[in-house]
Amino acid sequence: MNFSMHKRPVMAFLLGLLILLSGCAMNPPPKADYTAFNQAKPRSILVVPVVNQSVEVTAQDYFLSTITIPLAERGYYVFPVNMVKRTLEDDGLNDANLVHNAPTEKLAALFGADAVLFITITRWDAQYMLLTTQVTVEMEYVLKSAASGEIIWNNKKTMIYQPQNNNSGGHPIGMLIAMAISAAITKAMPNYIPLATQANNQAIYNEHNGLPIGPYSKAKTE
């Protein structure tokens, strides 16, 4: 049998696989349905205290410092998060779980907001692995209409940081010691803020399922 005849099925398979992969690369993920969001047309967003499901007790306070800027830059008025937290505590809502279970319409009415953003931290941890430490943050975002309480936008993001050792030309033992020290420092003092900021940016600015541009965006005025 001619050897070229054996090659034809293989070549055909590889060609088909290449076409399939090319099609996947060319077809972006489907765009989110913004029908409810466009009907609500929010101009202001109330960010309520974050529900923290991680073991890091300070996660919610650190996270709140990262969320205002991307929302404002996207074109929305954002109520000062610390003022919101204090006001809710004065009203007896000093637990984030209580706030998330409260009627959206009542929360929004306290501040005159058009929409309420509920955020849940599902992961905020630093896990030591062999000669490295992996830092992970994961958040869920749910935006609800102040008028109806309906979900008008939601997203979920996970960000992972693992320090890289660049001493590839060094002595093997020295490299191992350096990696161990780097992992120990990262585990002792993990820097969550840049990861949380990246997660917010990817959730809000993503062209396929991010938050639509708001009425105060510079992009709308230019």
Low-pLDDT segments = 173-190
Query: Given this structure, which CATH class is correct?
Result: Alpha Beta
| Global morphology | globular
Query: What is the chain-wise order of helices and strands?
Result: HHEEHEHHHEEEHHH
**What is the helix fraction of residues, given as a range?**
40-55%
- Main β-sheet, in a few words? 6 strands, mixed
| CATH-assigned homologous superfamily | ABC-type transport auxiliary lipoprotein component
Write the layout of secondary structure elements.
Blueprint: H1 3-26, H2 35-40, E1 44-47, E2 51-52, H3 59-74, E3 77-78, H4 81-90, H5 96-101, H6 104-111, E4 115-129, E5 132-145, E6 151-161, H7 172-188, H8 192-205, H9 218-221
Parallel strand pairs: 1-3, 1-4, 2-4
Antiparallel strand pairs: 4-5, 5-6
Helix pairs in contact: 3-8
Note down, in words, how this protein is organized.
It contains nine helices and six strands. It has 222 residues and is α/β, with parallel strands linked by helices. It has one domain (33-206): Rossmann fold (3-Layer(aba) Sandwich), CATH 3.40.50.10610.
